TrEMBL record:
Pfam families: Abhydrolase_6 (PF12697). This is Alpha/beta fold hydrolase. InterPro entries: AB_hydrolase_1 (IPR000073), AB_hydrolase_fold (IPR029058), AB_hydrolase_sf (IPR050266), Epox_hydrolase-like (IPR000639). PANTHER family: MONOACYLGLYCEROL LIPASE (PTHR43798), MONOACYLGLYCEROL LIPASE ABHD6 (PTHR43798:SF5). It comes from Streptomyces fimbriatus. Residues 25-254 form the AB hydrolase-1 domain. It comes from the Bacteria. One of its GO terms (molecular function) is hydrolase activity. The keyword Transcription regulation does not apply. Keywords: Hydrolase.
Length: 262
């Protein structure tokens, strides 16, 4: 795979922390701003999402391929085995970066890949509906984002209190979803992904955090994570949904800092 040029931005100062973004760029912002008080936060868009180009033609955007692209990008960004955090697909990428040794530690918020086939079909099917809604209002996302009922319909499967999402953040998320060329091929590829246990040869600190009100990947999947990764630190994010950054940025910030020496 040729070297990837990925879109990224840096906030704050201190020890580096990479945050992997996909559809959740706007949702992460309250957490990134808090993390930037203690870390140099490097927020990077996955290939095909946000402002990053897709993977090269002919490359299926599996979780492993996305992680490999980020791993190739890290040295050019001046980063050597940094701690990496992510949510959902980004969480699975963070775990694969830790598995490969490209990350010094990983914080995974509600990672995909701990689902059964029916659970994956449900989660990915609901995202397909959300994608259709976003594309339908791509030119005027405010038709949905400006109203609490619209935000609830658009984001009910992602956050515990979707009506509380700021209108500007909701509109940004809808735009990102509608215009990300990697969304549909990545959605199709993700259904086959299953998180594997780490071998003893991978002594990388890992934290897995799960929202107690996650409707996309329900909290019983956290029990599977605990069995599969017994050496990891497992955290419950009280009152949070699948994308907990919008529900409780303070709680998520503390979970990330606690896992990365803050």
């Amino acid at each position: 795979m040729p070297d990837m040029t990925l879109a990224s931005r840096r906030l704050g100062s201190g020890p580096p922390l990479v945050v992997v973004l996909q559809l959740d760029r706007d949702g992460w912002m309250p957490v990134l701003e808090r993390l930037a008080h203690e870390r140099e936060v490097v927020a990077v868009d996955l290939p095909g999402f946000g402002d990053s180009p897709p993977l090269p033609d002919g490359t299926t955007p599996t979780v492993e391929a996305l992680a490999a692209a980020v791993a190739e990008w890290l040295p050019g960004a001046g980063l050597t085995r940094p701690p990496v955090a992510g949510n959902s697909l980004g969480a699975a990428v963070a775990l694969e970066l830790a598995r490969s040794g490209a990350a010094g530690s990983a914080v995974a918020l509600s990672p995909v890949g701990l689902w059964t086939r029916p659970e994956a079909a449900y989660a990915l099917g609901s995202l397909r509906v959300a994608h259709a809604m976003a594309r339908a209002c791509a030119e005027r996302p405010g038709r949905i984002a400006d109203h609490s009922i619209g935000r609830t319909l658009a984001f009910w499967q992602l956050t515990a209190r979707p009506w509380r999402i700021p209108a500007a953040a909701a509109a940004g998320a809808l735009r990102n979803l509608a215009r990300s060329p990697g969304f549909e091929p990545t959605r199709r590829a993700a259904g086959a992904y299953r998180l594997r246990a780490f071998t003893p040869e991978v002594p990388v600190p890992v934290t897995v955090a799960w929202g107690t009100r996650d409707l996309m990947t329900p909290p019983h999947q956290a029990l599977r994570a605990a069995r599969l990764l017994p050496g990891a630190r497992h955290v419950a994010l009280r009152g949070c949904g699948h994308s907990p950054m919008s529900d409780d940025p303070e709680q998520v910030t503390r979970a990330v800092l606690d896992a990365t020496g803050g």
